[in-house]
Amino acid sequence: MNLEDKILGEKLQYYCSSSEDEGGDDEDEGSGSSGKGQGKSQLSVDPSLPQDSHHWSGNSANTGPKGVIKDWQRFKQLETEKRDAQERERLELLKKLSITAKTTAEDQKAKEQAEMEAELEDLLNDDFLLEFQKQRMQEMLQMSGLLPKFGSLIHLTSGDDFLKAVDNENKNVSVIIHIYEEKFRACRTMNSCLEKLAPEYPLIKFCKILSTATQLSKQFKTSALPALLVYKNGQIIGNFVRLHDELGDEFYHSDVENFLIEHSLLTDKTLVPIISTLSSQQQQNNDDDDD
After folding, report:
1. pTM, rounded to two decimals
2. For residue 207, what are the β-bridge partners?
């Protein structure tokens, strides 16, 4: 019987145990055996395998079925470990011997990446940011000279006036419309605030309209006021209802101003002196160049 037969448990009728406590029965039968007194069995080992303390020596102290299976499993484990070690050595050798070279596409990609990083560094540079800010402010100044000026709170009397105030305006003009009712204290306060803001922001079109003059629902008229709707180029860019929840029961025009600035609907007036100074310096430099 070969080792595979023992492991698979086949042909057990032909299996003769070599353990000492089962030896008596084998000796009595005797037929088919080459001689008496055969005790322990040995498995031959490939002499090419390393014979150190970490490798199987090829001898088994326990030659019963369990011992044979355990020895065979250990033998296969050592073979697997040896193959894995040889594969790792081969890969390491290939890695050392390999020559890496970038393709043209990779070189181009690396160049583009370096340019993007350099551009990002420029964006983070204070001088670049200051120059960009100056340029943007000058563009705003030039644009402001072409925009219409208002300076007062415009009263709209109908839904048609509402539509015309939004649709027929310059696309660069922001239109802020307050929908109100006189019976609400917060609405009266909002109108007072907008009347003060309108002269300070003449490029913004401030309007007000009674909720009864619009085609809004009754629920909106009773629960959403005061409401501010902000339009630009015919599109709504801000929609704020029940503003007394945000501003409180008592608020001032500075509170409304800060609220609109925080939502990027008004330009911070603290930048106006800087813009004027930059414009004056630019004009002076142009005059000096002409001289």
Report:
1. 0.48
2. 154, 177
